[in-house]
Input
Amino acid sequence: MPKAELHLHVEGTLEPELMFELARRNGVSLPYDSVEAVRRAYVFSNLQSFLDIYYAGCCVLLKEQDFYDLTWAYLTRAAAQGVRHAEIFFDPQTHTDRGVPFETVVTGIHRALEDGRARLNITAGLILCFLRHLSEEAARRTLDEALPYRDWILAVGLDSSEVGHPPGKFKNVYARARDAGLLAVAHAGEEGPPEYVWEALDVLKVRRIDHGVRAIEDERLVERLVQERIPLTVCPLSNVKLRVFPNLESHNLKQLLDRGLLVTVNSDDPAYFGGYVADNFGASAAALGLSREQLLTLARNSFVASFLSDQQKRAHLDELARISAQPSLKTIS
Ligand code: ADE
Ligand code: ZN
Output
């Protein structure tokens, strides 16, 4: 089934096999002695316990070619899962703070996205995320480094440790980014309270909320999100791995859909959370008993919620309509 992926951290697609290959290529030593040992270490108690391991894994990414290989590996997997368009997060500060130039990071990723368009027929946009556990001043320096590459960047986002780092902390840097013509999104309501979702909307003026599952705790907020058609980019397998929900059966994806929210399904950090986007569709459908119509709604929402032009959205929605009308369609994720 054709779909867009709107919540995907490129650093979160680093599979242990590639981690080892890059470590060997770059002479970096890893605190694991096998691919299996890495996978065994991926047991998390919350967001922070994941982030500690995720940032440590990035130490193998040093050269432009490493960023190219990482991004290309994701695109080939995504193509095999029906992804036609991806809006991809990257965390420049995770690399620049280790001495890797911004140019190295963005050039490697951008080159792979161009090849993805030419060779895999996947369109893509890049979303520069600020790390919210760092200062607004550090975010501003990162934005300044990014502006020479303005044409390669679609939007800014906000990720990393949520609780204790409300969106309002980044008010000024988001205003600068919007002045430069960048769109805005932010992680909010993953572990943090509904107030963070309000703040992302009112202070950062975001166009989408990443995660947002805790919005359901605030009736007025749900009404606003429905009324303004603000998308939530939900990541079911991530939420279970990071213990936002105890299991997929108790995830609120179906409730969010039933409330009329513009929900999408995404993979977040698939190398760490046990599945790419079609795996998230399949596992959610099985655990929550989603109907064929609900799965189609999720696929349609992924294009509607994207930053594609209306004409591009229409072309994808038409393709989806054609495919879903085929009587032979049995598996749709
Ligand atoms: N960085 C990578 N994945 C993240 C997530 N799920 N939440 C916040 N920051 C992240
Ligand atoms: Zn995320």
